[in-house]
Amino acid sequence: MGTELTFSIIKPNAVKKNAIGPIIALFEKNGLKIAAAKLVRLEKAQCEEFYAEHKARPFFGELVSFMTSGPVMLMALAGENAVSKNREIMGATDPAKAAAGTIRALYGDNVGENAVHGSDSPQSAMRELNLFFKETEFVNK
Ligand code: ADP
Ligand code: MG
Fold first, then answer.
1. What's the whole-number average pLDDT of the chain?
2. Separation of 82 CA from ligand 2 center, angstroms?
3. CB-ligand 1 contact for 120 (6 Å cutoff)
4. What are 67-76's pLDDT values in tens digits?
5. pLDDT tens across 30-52, in order?
6. Is the CB of 34 within 6 Å of ligand 1?
7. How far is the CA of 120 from the centre of ligand 2 (A)?
8. Which of 13, 64, 93 to mutate to test the pocket of ligand 1 (most atoms within 8 A of CB)?
9. Catalytic residue among 117, 125, 129, 132
10. Which of these, 29, 76, 101, 129, could form a disulfide with 35 (CB 3.0-4.6 Å)?
11. Rounded mean pLDDT of 116-128?
């Protein structure tokens, strides 16, 4: 099938605990390449658009306020089946239920502050990469 791209965010709690390095090491160790990366602070409106599918959920306000609370690392990850492989490396949404050795088990604090985001389908990946890396050429695939 060739190389696929997915979108990843290292969330504010993981950046705060200096876990950017070990998280990227897990991606690379598992065969995903960093195709693009930038460290930014998300703006509220931008974050609300990104998480639009969750607008009606009770945790939406909390989620947006957490995701805008500090710097985040935005990345495009490339590799065979990058979308599903990334979801495996991340582990379950709730760190308490995430398999041992996954990013969320290692660096997540709770179901909200769960260390990383990863696209849930190739279609989501396209939408999310377009939001944050529209002008970027992916030079490392
Ligand atoms: P995932 O990030 O695993 O795809 P969802 O798409 O269901 O999970 O949720 C998006 C994000 O919203 C989660 O990563 C987490 O930060 C937050 N979230 C999900 N469920 C809850 C919850 N019950 N309480 C607080 N925050 C939540
Ligand atoms: Mg999701």
1. 97
2. 15
3. yes
4. 999 999 999 9
5. 999 999 999 999 999 999 999 99
6. no
7. 6
8. 93
9. 117
10. 76
11. 98
pTM over 0.85: yes
Percent of the chain surpassing pLDDT 90:
96
Q: Does position 1 have pLDDT exceeding 80, yes or no?
A: no
Surrounding ion ligand 2 within 5 Å at CB are 120
Top mutation candidate among 7, 42, 48, 59 for ligand 1, by most atoms within 8 Å of CB: 59
- 28-33 long-range contacts (CB < 8 A, ≥24 apart) are 30/85, 30/88, 30/89, 31/79, 31/80, 31/85, 32/77, 32/78, 32/79, 32/82, 32/85, 32/86, 32/89, 33/77, 33/78, 33/79, 33/140, 33/141
User: How confident is the model at residue 141, as a pLDDT?
Assistant: 82
Structure tokens belonging to residue 19: 């876990």
Q: Is 117 in the pocket of ligand 1 (CB under 6 A)?
A: yes
Instruction: Report which of 11, 9, 29, 141 is spatially closest to residue 85, judged by C-alpha positions.
Output: 29
What is the set of domains in the chain, with CATH numbers?
3-137 (3.30.70.141)
